Amino acid sequence: MASPLLDASRVSKTFSLQGRMWRQDVGSIEAVSDVTLSIARGQTLGLVGESGSGKSTLARLLVGLLEPTAGEVRRGGESLRSLRGEPLRAARRAVQMIFQDTANSLNPRMTVEDIVSEPLIIHRLAAGKSRRDRLVELLDAVQLPRELLARVPRQLSGGERQRVGIARALATDPDLLICDEPIASLDVSVGAKIVELLRRLHASRRMALLFISHDLRAVAALCEQIAVMSKGRILETAPTDELLSHPRHPYTELLIRSAELDLDAAPASSLDP
Amino acid sequence: MPLLDVSNLSVSYGRGRERVIAVDRVSVSLEPGETLAIVGESGSGKSSLALALTRLLPTPPADVRADRILFEGSDLLQMPQEQLRAIRGGRIAYVFQDPGTSLNPVLTIGAQLREAIVQHTAYRSMRANAQAVEWLERVGMPSARDRLGAYPHEFSGGMQQRAMLAMAMAAKPALLIADEPTTALDVTIQVQILRLIRDLTRQLHLSMLLISHDLTVVERIAQRVAIMSAGRIVELGPVAEVFTRPSHPHTKELLACRSSVTLRRGRPSHG
Amino acid sequence: MSAILRNRIALAGAVILLGLSVVAVLAPWIAPYDPLHVNLPDALLPPCTAYPLGTDQLGRDVLSRLIYGTRISLTIGFIAVGIAVVVGTVVGAVAGFYGGWVDTVLMRVVDTMLAIPTIFLLLAIIAMIGPSIELIMVVIGLTGWMGVARLVRAEILSLKEREFVLAARMLGASSFRIITKHLLPNAMAPVLVSATLGVGGAILSESVLSYLGLGVQPPTPSWGNILNEGRVALGVAWWLTVSPGLAILITVLSFNLLGEGIRDALARRQ
Fold it and tell me: Chain C residues with CB inside 8 Å of A99's CB?
C-alpha cells in the first residue's frame, strides 16, 4: 500500500511560557495534543476548528515550520527529521502553504515577480527566460494578469494577494497545498472565487488539499473528508456527507447547528467562560 | 412616523483628486421595532453610513451632507453638539465588531456600565449598581454580581460583547446600530450572541440597524435589507423578497456566493 | 519620497544638504582662493569684497577654507555613520535573528559600550594613537554603532514572526537569504532616520575634537579647527568663529530636519 502523502502520528506540540527576566519556565500550553491524521495523494481534507483549537499550530507542524514535542510528521512515510540534502529539499517542495493574512504573508518590499520567483530561485528550478515563462504560467494558473508582476503587495487587493500567495505555493509543483484560513479576511464574493480556484487547481493538478477553516460551510463545499478539532485534539474525522448527517461528537453537532445559525436551538445563557 | 428618516446622505473623504465618495446619496428609513440590515462588502460604505448618522465621523477629513437625518422627529444634522451627545449612547446605542477596542481597558465592567446608566437614565449610585447587575444578568452573563469588578481583558470575546450589549441596552435606547457585532466571534458563540440580540430587540421593542456581510445572519434577524455597493443602495426591500427574487446583479452575486451546501441533518445536498 | 517633498521643512533640509554636497564636490572650482595659501599682509581682515568672510591670522581666506572644510566635514560625517550602520546592522541582525546566548552576549557588549561616555572614549583613543582623519572617522563610527544595533535588533525581533518570514522558511530559504532579502530590507527604515540624524552628530563630534586640538590637524581646514584657531582672536576677529559656527549649525540642523521628515514620512505610511 502506498504511503500517504503526509501523515501525522500522535503529534503534540507544547509551548512553554517563559518568565521575562530570567527566562525561567512559568507554565506551558499544549496547543496540539496527540493528533493523528493522514492525507493521501489527491485527497481533500478539511480541518474545522474555532479559535484556540490549535489548527494553525497543527498546520505549521505539518508543513515543517515547527518541530513537534512528541510524535512524528512523515512525508511519504519518511520523517522530515531523518532527511538530508536532496531528499529533504524534494520533501520541502512537495508540501506548500497559503496563509490567512494576505497582507502579512507577502514581503511588503518585494514585487509580485520577486515573490513568485523566490521558490524557483531557492530550489533552482528555472532561470533566465524559462523562469519568466514559468512565472507567466503560474500567474495564468491563478488568473492574474501579467501586468501585476511589477506591483508590490500594497497595490493589490486582498483577493489578488491571496492569488499571489497561491502562485508562490504552486511554483514548486507541490503534491499537497495546506490552506490556513485562506478566506477568513476576504469578502464573501472574493473568498468564494478563491475556493473555486482551489477546487479547479485540485482537479487539474490532482493536488491534495488540506483546507483549514472555522467556516464549516466552506470546508464542506470543498472537501471530501472533514476533521473536527477542538482544544488541540481531533474529535472526529469522517467523510463529509457522513459527518454532516451523522456527527458522532456533540461538539461537531454544535458546530453544524452554529454554522446554520439556528438561533432557537442555541441555549439562552452562555457557554463560554 | 418612522423612527429614523435619512434623506440623501453623502459622505466623502479628502479633497480634489484624492476625494473618495464613501456614501453616495443614501436614503433609508426605519420604523419603530424594525430591524433593517445593511449588507455590503468592504468599501461599500456601510460603516461610514453607520457612523455618519450620529455625526461620529471627524469632519475633516470626512464631509457629511444630507437633506435631513430625522430621529424621533428631530434633525440630527442640525442638532447642537450637547444635545447630540446625549442621544449618542442614549437613545441611539452602538455595538461594534471588536468589543476589545470599544471597552476601556482600565475601567472595570461595572464602572463602565454604571457610567452608561448614570449618564443616560435617572438612576444614581446604588440603584445604578443594581441596574448594572440586572442588565448583566439579562445579557446572560453568569455570576453577574461578581463580574462587575472584573476588567475587560479578563473576559472572552463573547463575554465582552455581552457586556457591550448590556451597556448599550442599559441606556434605554430606541435605536441600536450594530456594526458586524458577531463577526469577530467564534461561530458557536455567534449563535448565542445573535439570539441574545434578537431576543433583546424584541423584548424592548427596539429598532436596529444591523450591518453585516453575512447573508445568513441577515436572514435570521432582519425584516428588511438594503444592499450597498460603492456607496449606493442598489436594492432595498423585505428580506424574504430580496433573497428569493433579487433584482440587482450585485445582490444576485452575493446570494450566489452563499455556499449551496446545506448542513441540515439528513442527506445534505450539494448544490 | 513624495512625502518628504510634501513636508516643506524636511524639503528645506534636503535642499540645503544637496547644496552643501555640491559645494563639497565642486570645491576646487568654487573656492576663490587656495585655502592653504598664506598671505600675512592680508591677515585678520574683516569681511569685505575681496574676502567675503574675512581672513584668518595667516591671511588665508576664510570662505575658501570653509568650502574645503565642507568636504572634510561631510566626508567624516558620512563615513563615520556608514561604519556605525554597517557594524550596528550586522551585530543587531545576528543578535535578533539567532537569539539565545548569541543575543545575550552581543547585547551585553552593546550595553557595556553604551555605558562608556562617547566623548571621553574618543579623546582617550585619539590622544593615545594620534589624530588622523581616518582614525577620527573610524572612532566616531565605532562609538555610534550601538544605537543602530539596538534598532536593528528590535526591528528584526518583531519582523521574525511575521508571516512572510514564515512563508520564506516554508519555501526552504536559507537563514542568510531570510536575513538579507526579507528581514533587513524591512528593518532599515528606522536605521535610515537614525543615520540621517547621526551624520549631524558625527560632524559635531569632529568639530568638538578639532576644537580640542585632537581633530583634523592644520593646515587642512575643517570647520572644527577653523573654530579652534579663531578662538584666540575671538575679541578681534569675530568672523573666524561665527562663519564655521554657522556652517556647523546649519548643516546639523538640516540633517535633523531631513531625518525628522523621513521619520514622519515613514510614520504616515503606516
Answer: 163, 166-167
Most A CBs within 10 Å, among B47, B165, B192, to test the A interface = B192
Cell reading at A243: 459527518
Does the distance separating the beta carbons of C170 and A96 come in below 8 Å?
Answer: yes
Q: Check which CATH number belongs to the domain holding B19 and give it.
A: 3.40.50.300
* Comparison of pLDDT for C162 and C30, the residue scoring more: C162
Query: For the purposes of burial, counting CB atoms within 10 Å of the CB of B60, is it exposed (0-12), middle (13-18) or buried (19 or more)?
Result: exposed
B interface test, pick of A263, A264, A269, A271 with most B CB neighbours within 10 Å: A263
Domain C2-30+54-269 coded CATH 1.10.3720.10: yes
Question: How many CB pairs below 8 Å do chains A and C form together?
Answer: 54
- CA torsion C46→C51→C53→C59, rounded to 10°? -70
Quote the domain boundaries for residue B101: 4-257
Give A190's contacts in chain B (Cβ within 8 Å). 41
In a domain, B270, yes or no: no
Nearest CA in chain C to A63: C170
The structure's pTM equals 0.83
Contact list, B188 vs chain A (CB under 8 Å): 50, 254-255, 258, 271-272
Cα–Cα dist A115/A99, whole Å: 14
C21-62 pLDDT, tens digit per residue, is 888 888 888 888 887 888 888 788 888 877 888 888 888 888
Given CB atoms, is A267 within the 8 Å cutoff of chain B? yes
C182 touches chain A (CB under 8 A): yes
Contact A105 C167 (CB under 8 A): yes
Q: What share of chain B is helix, strand, coil (3-state, %, to 5)?
A: 40, 25, 35
Q: Where do the domains of chain A lie, and which CATH numbers do they carry? A: 6-18+27-104+175-262 (3.40.50.300)
Q: How far apart are CA A35 and CA B199, in angstroms?
A: 40
ipTM score for this prediction = 0.84
Number of domains in chain B: 1
List pLDDT tens digits, range B30-54. Answer: 999 999 999 998 888 898 999 998 8
